[in-house]
Design goal:
Number of strands: 9
Bound molecules: NADP nicotinamide-adenine-dinucleotide phosphate
Strand order of the largest sheet: 3-2-1-4-5-6-9
Radius of gyration: 18 Å
Structural class: alpha/beta
Number of helices: 8
CATH class: Alpha Beta
Shape: globular
Largest sheet: 7 strands, parallel
CATH superfamily: NAD(P)-binding Rossmann-like Domain
CATH architecture: 3-Layer(aba) Sandwich
Amino acid sequence: MTDTKTGHCIWITGASSGIGKAVALAYAQAGYTIAASARSQDALETLAADASDMAGTIVPVPLDVTDKDAAEAAVEQIERIIAPISTAILNAGIYLPVDPSAEFDPAPYLNSMAVNYHGTIHCLLPVTQRMLSRRSGHLVILSSVTGYGGLPTSAAYGPTKAALINLAESIKFDLDPHGIRTSIVCPGFVDTPATESNAFPMPFLVPTAAAAQRIVDGISAGKFEITFPRRFTFALKFLNMLPYRLYFPIVRRMTGRG
Ligand SMILES: NC(=O)c1ccc[n+]([C@@H]2O[C@H](COP(=O)([O-])OP(=O)(O)OC[C@H]3O[C@@H](n4cnc5c(N)ncnc54)[C@H](OP(=O)(O)O)[C@@H]3O)[C@@H](O)[C@H]2O)c1
């Protein structure tokens, strides 16, 4: 575990719901101080109240990650009022399935990039700057197995997650020598509000609390990639190593699309 019990805190974005909320509660249960960010102030306050009888504390820090100045101000506020950030879990994200054979509005593509990729960058850089001055810290970025390779209906979401995997691989080279760890989280399907409207079958759907525990354990172990459930995510990883003449027909057969 990181040293958050001794005067540091964990910052989680997208903490009002789903995976981020479950990770915040898992850390609060274990006695840590969490700065919890998302746009919905009410949901963050409810979350803080839910943790009030736990060993740790959750402090709401409302933030829209698409606002670069607000993200910088949030980091400054957390470090000044709560504690220095030892672990930043950059989890805020939106999932917008698209059908490029029927819809021609660029908005879901641009909004996905604005929240999932640009939003992560807005949070990552100010927190990295502070971690560099301390020569310690852990950056945890939420991607997805959708980032491994193209999948049906993922043309807006998938590229944002592929970009985050590449970002994490790149910063690992640059930040390791400065004492800052990087992790990328690539889950399969997790049972959250984001996936509940999916009309297709979701193999090996993971309950939110189980997903949170996998993430907490992976962070503790200092893993670069945290991926689960492995029987699903390793199969996808393998598929993406195949030549395209095999990849496309297998994915078509598996998903019944295309
Ligand atoms: N569920 C899955 O199967 C799955 C699989 C792989 C990866 N993931 C990734 O895991 C992360 C969490 O997803 P989830 O399934 O837990 O979804 P979720 O329940 O919809 O939660 C998304 C969180 O992001 C926040 N958020 C959205 N836009 C934001 C913005 N502009 N600024 C700040 N916060 C914002 C939301 O809060 P507000 O609306 O209050 O702002 C919410 O707290 C995402 O990055 C997602 O891509 C999920």
